[in-house]
Amino acid sequence: MSHKDIYVRIRAAVVIAFVCILMIYTITMILGMEQLTLDEEAPIRVTAWLFIALGTAVPCLFALYFAWMISVFVKRDKSFSLYTAKMLKNISNCALIDALYFLAANVVMFVLNYNHPGIALISLALILLALAIGIAFAALARFVQKAADLQEESDLTV
């Protein structure tokens, strides 16, 4: 597979992920707004959850930006560069920040008695998924950094 093919696939994956994020957050907002009109006792709780949900979108969008930047370097045949490793580490940090933010928000909502046990379990699954993604990208960043070091060393000996 050529670098151009990988570049196109990364860009396609980023665009698909962006569309999925838009759909997920749009549906979340629509359902939240419907809940606001149906449940007169819970406007503060639902509004707080909507803001928390929107807050989780920010690191996701930054991660997509970093993935887009990685595709530029893949196209230039610089897949194993320190810049690519840095972008992968940034994606890892975004996932970990998102997980910590969502965990903290869940704890606060639980303390305020605005959380339902079912929501807490689903949230825990999402937090674990974000942690797994963060760890995987951190490992990938480390491997790319080592490969970049080896490639640089190899370039100097030739």
Structure explained in plain terms:
With 158 residues, the protein is mainly α. The protein has one domain (3-157). The protein is built from 4 helices and no strands. The protein is elongated. The mean pLDDT is 90.
Gap between N and C termini:
25 Å
Which residue ranges are poorly predicted, with pLDDT under 50 across at least 5 consecutive positions?
A: none
Averaged pLDDT, please?
Answer: 90
Q: Could you give the order of the helices and strands?
A: HHHH
Which radius of gyration do the C-alpha atoms yield? 20 Å
Backbone structural class: mainly alpha
Count of DSSP strands: 0
The percent of residues in helical segments reads over 70%
- The number of helices is 4
Number of domains: 1
Principal-axis shape: elongated
Report the β-strand fraction as a percent range: under 5%
Largest sheet: none
Q: What keyword list fits this structure?
A:
mainly alpha; 4 helices
How does the SSE layout of this entry go?
Blueprint: H1 3-38, H2 43-75, H3 82-111, H4 117-157
Helix pairs in contact: 1-2, 2-3, 3-4
